[in-house]
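Notebook entry, structure prediction.
Reason for the run: the old model in the group folder had no record of what sequence produced it. Starting over properly, with the input documented here first.
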Amino acid sequence: MLNFIFFMNLPGTIFFLFHTCLIPLEKKVLPPHLRVMIVRLNLLLFLFPFPLLANYIRNLLSILHITIPLNTDYNKSITLLSDKEIIFPKISIFVIIILGIWCIGIFSKLLKTYFIDAKKFKNFCAARIVTDSSAAKKVQKRQIEILRKNFTLSKNIQIITVDGLISPYVTGILHPKLYVPVSTKFSPQMNTLILRHELAHIKHHDLLYQRLSLITTILYWYNPILYFLFQRISNYDELSADETALLYSSLKERRDYGLCILEMLSTSCKTGTVSLQKSYASKKIFYKERIELMKSIVPKGKKGILLAAFTASVIFAVSLLPILVYAAPATITDQKSSLSDDSGEWLSFNYDEPNPEEIHFSEYDTYFIDVYGNKYPVVSETPYTLCKHNYVSGTISKHYPDGKGGCTVKKFEAKRCKYCASILTGDLIETRIYPKCSH
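New structure, fully documented this time:
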């Protein structure tokens, strides 16, 4: 389980680090809407279980005669020994503790996000909702409806007037709601651009991806990279919404819009711990970039799309390479399969009936069986120092009575010298626990 969680985080983390190195170049050559595509691809690496596809990718590479080393350190399997005997991998106390801490962290993040912050914001808006049927508000609603049709938005948008807001605010994924202030000191033209910005969030499905990003930070709360990725996604969504709102606008309109942004930032409204501005509102570097971008907004071009697709594809492919060493756990094998396990921690169940292929330890407690099926009793495993060893591969089985009528049989990978009969014991293959010894 811990191995799977690690490999779920690894590709996305690698992608984020590579992308961070390319941001200075990205700002110069890629428009915001293409940068949004790249960070969303980064988010996908954290959400989609790509490690489960490792076997399929290795099979495709094997056609090209490319061999990937497999990590089997954690590949503990459920082994079917017979119709009435099964071996399960035993979960260590350390793993149980780590998983417990992980679950507690998830619960704490859920509690803070959905039951504290979200509730405070909802209560703030509910206490200040204003029912306004004035002519001005009717004109504003008609304006929003026209903008909705211009953006080809099929969803109906509920418009809610709230006292105390500095700027409009969008919430809701399936049923979007647009919170608008009771009054504003900006010109009608600037109000239109601000509304276009908010509707662009709905058109680009920004709320959905931000919610997915939030869920990812809750699931993998221990990974600091995800908090930076969440902020980066939010920032890029704002840049893309600005780009959509200001497309084909004049230089004067862009300048006035930038002044509106700065004025709303300086007078941002806060109630308790709930900020009605974004969490990055105090980031001067981001707002400087946001203002600078307004000077050079250009229509979408094919060259930028091709460059973004190529860049994202290369980083995506490189980020997926580490998962190729992942070995999927909990594979069911038969009794002839061998399992490599360094820790030797396995849990065995049976129904008190001996396996017909089990060794009977009537004379010795240790036997070696070579690859040809020959069985040799083992008296001593100490190698003879003067012997020029010639080893034959096989397995060694050891019998441990528990003194209560039961026993444990452990099988290891091993090699036996043809000349001095010395044994080299390797990794544990399997452990069988018998409540009633039949040997």
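Summary: The first helix runs from residue 2 to 29.
The old model has been moved to the deprecated folder.
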